């Protein structure tokens, strides 16, 4: 062996770059290095091909080759009639498509559903494209205006007042319930051991009720005047717009800087006025379609979108609460999260639908769909909270310290520094929850709500279309619809992840 | 150097649970004074300067920064933090914001300065730390030394009266230590009041008015750098210097 250190070396000619040997790149390279590079891998490759063969071929045969494409009833999809083995029975889907999309929504009113879909898509798509401008206005419209418009479009009905009437009504309810509680206690005190105490507390409550009554008297008086006028909705609307705009103007900094706030407020009210006028809310709005008639994809989308939109703020609030240093908030958050995570969604839905009406007074009856919506939102919110908490824990402590050292308050530190980073870390987890929520919407069919899957199963019982392959066709179709939505969310989340993590690339 | 104290720490005591981290700390820092705090690790140097802008709470004593009293209840935290800038060992730049956004965040959200003005000011400070051309990069795309200089610029955009440096060069490659120290020397020349926790004794010799040596949560010795390095008085300081100045 030669002594290495004894032989100095200086390169004279630099080696030029050459292309890699074709054996290691391209398709042949892939075959050699990934699929056939060892006996074990050769075996796995063959097994994989066989598996693909046994899955893909029958699926294609069922869905396309042997499928029946036209027909008027079940006879078209019978083997005797078709003359060959029958796969998917697509005319059945064609016949039931309306039911799968709208449920029992009255046919004459289905344009309202279509309009809602179109509005939602028109607002959502630009929101999803990062290039397009005016994200603030767009998200405001989608998250605040759209739900209200969608409610009046889908459900129908109008309004009898506006801001003044609603607030007056709420305060009056509050006043009445306090006064009522007081009266109840005073009555109880006649037959109780701690009578004097009850009597005093009751009288105090009654007094508070009377006090509130006089405090809100100007408001209720205004409300009564407005309701007595010839145009109650528009009068109320005008008064509310003037009051709110004036408050915005003053809060925005008065004459000096308040113009922007004033302009924003006036434009918002102008938009609301246009909405009221277009939908005719001041004279009853559209005919009411009870939520029991809703069904199919409509219910699935309503539950999924409401759940997705509502679970984020719930999750963020609970996750921050669980990390709070204030014991009461922390304990409440932990208890809330653990309770909702520990209970199956089916139980939640069942309880909300069948048990809750037994406990609350009759005039508090909440719509069945709304109860399911609240149940799903809270349930998903609890899951979301734990995902987001993971993200919060992944943000280095120094980040919050640096922000505080610059003088940022806790709220600003959290919303500008900690949360944006935490949410980026957990995009995969968040989308995971969304996807699982989207599919869990099918559970509402056990509480007599007909979502996509529920409508599908209902359609199986139609004797006009009973064939051996009806159920398979239906489930294949529903599966495709679920897949399109879930896969879409998944791909979009990858896109967002890549975009937001631009700062981590070098 | 004027003698008006801008930071006045008196009878400061702090415990982590049962552990007495800071013991009877008294320290007066004059306007434009540059103090280097050194000592073995775990001696409470960082904890001390983190108390000054209330990143750490303390149980006894009082800190007055530019007339703003900060007692154990930390009631006037926000006011103090607006006057005190801080530079961390691990930079702590906000990775999801560009360099420019890092430097305009606090002026915009704390001082309500319009975005345009905040950006102009930020560019001025980025020029001072010699990285104006990197303003639109993300922190992750820069070297450690550049990041630390951005961190200094970020702190300066709030026009602090006092700057705290918590081992600003300890996480840097040897090559990059100098660029950060040069920035700090420039800052010192302009008359900034600085409290610097560091092991860079060359820096201490060059810019400090005073070296404070800490051990076991207390101030052991405080002297001019010339005196401290040439002639340490306490046995603990002698041992420390003999170990780091080999």
From TrEMBL, chain A:
<feature type="transmembrane region" description="Helical">
    <location>
        <begin position="472"/>
        <end position="495"/>
    </location>
</feature>
<feature type="transmembrane region" description="Helical">
    <location>
        <begin position="141"/>
        <end position="174"/>
    </location>
</feature>
<feature type="transmembrane region" description="Helical">
    <location>
        <begin position="42"/>
        <end position="64"/>
    </location>
</feature>
<dbReference type="GO" id="GO:0043190">
    <property type="term" value="C:ATP-binding cassette (ABC) transporter complex"/>
</dbReference>
<keyword id="KW-0472">Membrane</keyword>
<dbReference type="GO" id="GO:0022857">
    <property type="term" value="F:transmembrane transporter activity"/>
</dbReference>
<keyword id="KW-0812">Transmembrane</keyword>
<protein>
    <submittedName>
        <fullName>Amino acid ABC transporter permease</fullName>
    </submittedName>
</protein>
<feature type="transmembrane region" description="Helical">
    <location>
        <begin position="237"/>
        <end position="255"/>
    </location>
</feature>
<feature type="transmembrane region" description="Helical">
    <location>
        <begin position="332"/>
        <end position="356"/>
    </location>
</feature>
<feature type="transmembrane region" description="Helical">
    <location>
        <begin position="368"/>
        <end position="388"/>
    </location>
</feature>
<dbReference type="InterPro" id="IPR000515">
    <property type="entry name" value="MetI-like"/>
</dbReference>
<dbReference type="Pfam" id="PF00528">
    <property type="entry name" value="BPD_transp_1"/>
</dbReference>
<dbReference type="InterPro" id="IPR035906">
    <property type="entry name" value="MetI-like_sf"/>
</dbReference>
<dbReference type="InterPro" id="IPR043429">
    <property type="entry name" value="ArtM/GltK/GlnP/TcyL/YhdX-like"/>
</dbReference>
<keyword id="KW-1003">Cell membrane</keyword>
<feature type="transmembrane region" description="Helical">
    <location>
        <begin position="111"/>
        <end position="129"/>
    </location>
</feature>
<dbReference type="InterPro" id="IPR010065">
    <property type="entry name" value="AA_ABC_transptr_permease_3TM"/>
</dbReference>
<feature type="transmembrane region" description="Helical">
    <location>
        <begin position="194"/>
        <end position="217"/>
    </location>
</feature>
<feature type="domain" description="ABC transmembrane type-1">
    <location>
        <begin position="297"/>
        <end position="493"/>
    </location>
</feature>
<keyword id="KW-0813">Transport</keyword>
<comment type="similarity">
    <text>Belongs to the binding-protein-dependent transport system permease family. HisMQ subfamily.</text>
</comment>
Automatic annotation (TrEMBL), chain B:
<dbReference type="InterPro" id="IPR003439">
    <property type="entry name" value="ABC_transporter-like_ATP-bd"/>
</dbReference>
<comment type="similarity">
    <text>Belongs to the ABC transporter superfamily.</text>
</comment>
<keyword id="KW-0547">Nucleotide-binding</keyword>
<dbReference type="Pfam" id="PF00005">
    <property type="entry name" value="ABC_tran"/>
</dbReference>
<protein>
    <submittedName>
        <fullName>Amino acid ABC transporter ATP-binding protein</fullName>
    </submittedName>
</protein>
<dbReference type="GO" id="GO:0015424">
    <property type="term" value="F:ABC-type amino acid transporter activity"/>
</dbReference>
<feature type="domain" description="ABC transporter">
    <location>
        <begin position="7"/>
        <end position="241"/>
    </location>
</feature>
<dbReference type="InterPro" id="IPR003593">
    <property type="entry name" value="AAA+_ATPase"/>
</dbReference>
<dbReference type="GO" id="GO:0005524">
    <property type="term" value="F:ATP binding"/>
</dbReference>
<dbReference type="GO" id="GO:0016887">
    <property type="term" value="F:ATP hydrolysis activity"/>
</dbReference>
<dbReference type="InterPro" id="IPR017871">
    <property type="entry name" value="ABC_transporter-like_CS"/>
</dbReference>
<dbReference type="InterPro" id="IPR027417">
    <property type="entry name" value="P-loop_NTPase"/>
</dbReference>
<comment type="function">
    <text>Involved in beta-(1--&gt;2)glucan export. Transmembrane domains (TMD) form a pore in the inner membrane and the ATP-binding domain (NBD) is responsible for energy generation.</text>
</comment>
<keyword id="KW-0813">Transport</keyword>
<dbReference type="InterPro" id="IPR030679">
    <property type="entry name" value="ABC_ATPase_HisP-typ"/>
</dbReference>
<keyword id="KW-0067">ATP-binding</keyword>
<dbReference type="InterPro" id="IPR050086">
    <property type="entry name" value="MetN_ABC_transporter-like"/>
</dbReference>
